[in-house]
Protein: tRNA-specific 2-thiouridylase MnmA
Amino acid sequence: MHDPRGATRPLNSLGFARPPAETRVVVAMSGGVDSSVVAAQLKGEGYDVIGVTLQLYDHGAALKKKGACCAGQDIHDARRVAERIGIPHYVLDYENRFRESVIEEFADAYLAGATPVPCIRCNERVKFRDLLQTARELDADCMATGHYIRRFDGPEGAELHMAADQDRDQSYFLFSTTQEQLDFLRFPLGGLASKAQTRALAAEHGLVVADKPDSQDICFVPEGNYAAVIEKLRPGAAEPGDIVDLDGNVLGSHRGVIHYTIGQRRGLGIGGLGDPLYVVRLDADSRQVIVGPRTALATRIVPVAEVNWLGGGDFAQAGEREIMVRIRSTRPPAPAILRPTGPTTAEIELAAAEEGVSPGQACVFYESGSTRVLGGGWITIRETRR
Structure:
């Protein structure tokens, strides 16, 4: 929606050369404080704001569950905020899309011995694909979210950068944002110094969600009980099997690989065998939980697939380079070497070995000495050296 008359106008806060009133922005409203503040702030600046909330899973179950998002109470809260600030608000039923694009794959990946991150897939396949398409159909100039991450205009287009508040940074969960999506997205909270600042803004706008707790769990996994969800989605899938050491010796039995995670030490039921043993690998095909000493958890070479590259140019031709990587959302970026092995595959060599690297987790790339996110990929199964 280029406006030649605005060529000499200064850019507004969303980067368009036209008055806010002539700039339409769809705000993805989850019902939480972050996205509510984004909607209120943009409305206060005079933008043409439309709020959209997604219903992602069963309304009845959602009403009984606290600490989630995109469910019954949250939809109600988003609607109240929209009424308070005076913007149109729509609720879209994406339950089927969410189940097909996120929940089903989550179940299959878990059964295959991986440790998936469904929040990333939700951003990739539902919020930043289907919802973004809806925003375009509403003739929006851009879509804004309450994520803590920054977007800067660089010499080769929009760049993704970590949030100013490192404690709130959500770049790990947004690495799969494509360049096309990034050009259309805006993240107004990325530059805030703290969550306290966000809550203060919510209070200033008189929003009912100002003191609402942050969502903690994966929305469809009550109290973090992954195994219970998998057993419900795939009845009979929790097949028992053997706990074996690195040489294949049977040490005990288990009640299903879905009850274990790589790096787990407690609850194995094989105590009294000398040095502590940890889950090193899960083999769903043979129904084996492979355990070993803590040293066996250390990994330096990490293969990744489905690489999303935001570093400019052709990824396969990018060549070897030193970067920073994050292989777990709770850890800071660490030095590594990136070696592309194909159009969307790579090998990561960590400068220092990491423990508990698990297939199904994300490996996110950052530019050394910078806050810029270069993209990332999904960790795949590696060969175990015995």
